[in-house]
Structure formats: structure tokens, C-alpha cells
Amino acid sequence: MTVSSPPAPLTVASFLAREHGLLIGGRWRPAESGQTFVSVDPATGHPLATLARGGPADVDAAVAAARAALADPRWRDLNPLQRGELLHRLAELVEEHAEELALIESLDNGKPVSVARAVDVGTTAKLFRYFSGWPSKFEGATIPLSPRGGLRILNYTVHEPVGVVGAIVPWNFPMSMASWKLAPALAMGNTVVLKPAEETSLSTLRLAELAAEAGFPPGVLNVVTGPGSVVGAAIAAHPGVDKVAFTGSTEVGRLVTTAATGNMKKVSLELGGKSPHIVLPDADPAAVAAAAADGIFFNQGQTCTAGSRLYVHADLYDEVMSALVEHARRIVVGPGQDPATQMGPLVSARQLATVNSYVESGLAEGAVLATGGTRPDGLGDQYAGGYFLAPTVLTETTHAMRVVREEIFGPVLVAMRWREVDELIDKANDSPYGLSAGLWTNNLTQAHRIAAAIRAGTIWINCYNLTDPASPFGGFKQSGWGREMGRGVLEQYTETKSVWVNLT
Ligand code: NAD
Is the minimum distance from the CB of 232 to ligand 1 under 6 angstroms? Predict the structure, then answer.
């Protein structure tokens, strides 16, 4: 297989038809082993594209290219405004190619193309635009010291790139999860070896082409596709990688952290969640039912912040639950490319099997199936092999059940009643995760009291699932280490140097 630079003009069909290579040092090339793997369309189960199956030798080559690019004057010597301009240009290119990127994301992941356009593509462009302003604004400090012996010292700090960043991302928001890492890493002058999830690598490959078009020099961004246990593990353990930025499951986050200790890499982790979504007694039942449904069924429930544990005050429980079940039954499930579709298939046969097994375990432990739990009716024959599951609601659930304790990562809501606020807070915090929480009320005192008491990185009050590049995002407890986005993330992509000058 030989992989050449992209032909023009590009259509999504011609993009998919290529044999996709690895991007190493500015060249697209096959895997060293010559092996490939196939990405599947989750709506049909049919092959969508063929990709290079990278291995340790490819990771070695990508890390070497990234190290060389760190010292390349075309990157190292850019001034901050010039670096910012590259990020800004990439934001513009993402917007110019929005339709194409959204279609690629929808075909590869299964999500509705409208979601891919508004959320995945929209977030990616916004991220690069926001971080394009930081290179010229992330200042060090001059620090007033009190040295002994009458010394006069000028002490200042400078932020320097960490070096080579290994970025490993999941399949739920493929391109935007990549951009959460790429934008701050590149803004701060690092170079990157990026590994997309094997289920959904295509949009990231296209983004890498756009980055080259924007003018990022060769080797600044390298992409190695392939299995996590091979490519991801090699990046996490590689002595030439200075920092690993991981988004994915808590289980794999643990493996990555252990592998990273060899050369004491910096590690940042965005991991799983099991977020409580809370309804107080003064909330509007109809509005809250719709919001709770969106909180879990958005992106087929494959959202780290999914409001997957619903706690409704007992006074409102019956009314909210009956509206929610009605709402769930009306959600149009279908292929992501159908404009009528509100919920697409799950990403893979494996994910569908996992989610189905959770539903079965919930029922075996005594939960009641209020709706869903099966493949929806009415999908055409061409979608017989697709990974569809109807929006599913389990009631009469308790904290002893696996469906309440573990992250399902699918369109399955578990619902519970509550009466006393203290008991509610205990239940909301009764989880190894602490990524996010939502609550619905106009009672200011209760809203702030509950927001303060819940151990989670994001609290949404009368809204849910909003993010912004300017606001920090990340988890308490086993939901991660560090924060993405906002000013704070820049610390994670820089080393701070303290310089002492004796002026005595
Ligand atoms: P995953 O942990 O299985 O995989 C994530 C990435 O790690 C993939 O690229 C995978 O190939 C790679 N990987 C797998 N094994 C590896 C290994 N041994 N060493 C290094 N890398 C390896 O997760 P997933 O199934 O792709 O995504 C779902 C998970 O991601 C959920 O738990 C979800 O909550 C989490 N997630 C978290 C956030 C967040 O911001 N907190 C965002 C999105 C998804």
C-alpha cells in the first residue's frame, strides 16, 4: 500500500475510499507492518474505511518526528502571535469544512449529523479559536522575594512547552476530544503524537490534513491509528513522550498512568462519570422531563457527563417520570444521516452488547423497565446489522444495583425518588465518579447548598451538558486528574521555570 497526499477536490466518498495512512513527520505512510484494519458504519455494520494498523515501530517514528519538530526553527522560533495565527487558521478551515467533517463524524460514530455539525464540529472550531488567543497572553510573573543577607534578586517565571505530548482520545466525540488536547498543546508550543480511538479515527485524520493546510510544520502533529492496547500503550510507556493526555475509561486511565511512570511523564486524565441529575420539588415537571431525557439520550448516552442517575423529589416523581417516558418513546432513532434522526446507533457491536448486558443485570436485580430495552421498530432492512437501542428508562432502582453504580455509557437512565436534601446529597455523592451533576430549581438557597455539597467538577443549575473552551472541565475522585479548557489547562501543557538573577 502506498499512501499519497490527498487528491483534490475531496468528497466524503473519495475520502472514505482511500487507504488511510499514519501521519508521521508530515508524510502519510502505511504502518511499518503493512497491516490495516476496518472502521465500520454503526448504522449498518458494513465496512466504512480501511486504516493503517499502527504498532510500536510507528509510535517510535512518530515520537522521533515530534521530538525533531520541537527543535525545528519553523516551529520553535515562531513568535506567539504567529503560533496563534496557525490555530486561528485551523479554526477557520474547520468551519469551512463543517459539512464534510460532520458527515464523516456521523458515518463513523453513528451520531446524528445535526449533532456532529453543531457539537463536534462547532466545539472543535471554537476550541482552536479560543486557544489561538493564548500564546500571546499566557504570561509569567515577576515575583517579589525576601532573600537573606541583603541580596537583591530579580526573580521571574517563564512558561515553556512540556515537549512531546501523547494524546489518547475516545470515540464518543472523536474530533472534539482530540481538539480539547491539541488546541492547548499546540498553543503552548508542544508537539503531539495523537492516537484516536480505533472505532472513530476518520475525522481526526481529516483534521490533521487541515492542520497541515493551516501551516503547522511537519512533525508538529503526528497521528498513529490502531488498537489502544498496542498504539495507546506504546505512547503511554514511551520514554520520548514528556506528557500523556488521556480521555477514556477509568480502567484504561489506570493502565496509562502506570505505564507513564517509567519516565515520570506528566499525566492528565479525563475519565468516566455517573452523573446525578436532580429535580427539586419546585421544578416544572414537563420542562424537567425533557431536560432529563436530553441529559441522558444526547449522543446515544455515550457522553462522559450523561445525566445517567436521575433523582426526582417524591412529590413530583410520578408526573416527571410519566412525561419523561412519553418523551423517550417519541425520540426518533435511526441512521445518523437521516435529518429526522434524533438518536443514532451505538458506536459498535461491542458497546451495544455491553449496554444490553447492563439492562439485563438491572432487571435481574429488580429494576423495572419503564420503556426501551430493545431494538426500536421500523428501521429499514438495510439497517438490520446496525447497533440500535431504543431510549431506555429503568425505575425502582437502588444504590445496590450495578446499573446505578457503574458507568453504562449508553442510552439507559436509572431513576430514583428522594425526600430529604441530606439524603439526596449522600446519594448523589455515593459514586466513585465525580465528573458532573445537574439540578433543577428556582430555590436559590437549595441550589447553592447542593452545588457546594456535591463532589463533582461541573455543576449545572437549570441547564445541562453545556461546555465552553473558557470554562474548566474535569473530574473529582475517579473521574480524572487535572482540568481541560480554560486558562488552567495551559499549566498542564507547560513547564514553569523560575529564573533568579542576582542584582546585588
Ligand atoms: P477507552 O478507555 O476504552 O479508550 C480510550 C482510548 O484509549 C482509545 O483511544 C483506546 O484505543 C485507548 N486505549 C485502550 N487501551 C489502552 C491501553 N492499554 N493503553 C493506552 N490506551 C489505550 O474508552 P472509550 O470506550 O473509547 O470511551 C469511553 C470512556 O471515555 C467512558 O468511560 C467515558 O466516560 C470516557 N470519556 C470521558 C470524557 C471526559 O472528558 N471525562 C470524555 C469522553 C469520554
Answer: yes
Q: Any idea which residues carry the catalytic annotation?
A: 270, 304
Residue with CA at minimum distance from ligand 1 atom 20: 232
Question: Is residue 342 left, alpha or beta, with left meaning phi > 0 and alpha meaning psi from -120 to 50?
Answer: alpha
Atom of ligand 1 nearest to the CA of 351: 25
User: What confidence category does residue 7 fall into, taking pLDDT thresholds of 50, 70 and 90?
Assistant: very low
Q: Tell me which residue has cell 410520578.
A: 318
Distance 384 CA to ligand 1 centre (A): 28
Enter the pTM of the model: 0.97
- pLDDT tens digits for range 76-104: 999 999 999 999 999 999 999 999 999 99
Q: How far apart are CA 214 and CA 92, in angstroms?
A: 9
Residues 6+ apart with CB under 8 A from 260: 236, 237, 244, 267
Cα–Cα dist 56/33, whole Å: 10
272 ligand 1 Cβ < 6 A: yes
The three three-digit cell numbers of residue 482, written as one number: 487535572
State which ligand 1 atom lies nearest to the alpha carbon of 197. Answer: 9
Find the distance separating the first CA and the last CA of the chain, reported in whole Å: 66
Span 283-326, pLDDT tens digits: 999 999 999 999 999 999 999 999 999 999 999 999 999 999 99
Nearest alpha carbon, ligand 1 atom 23: 248
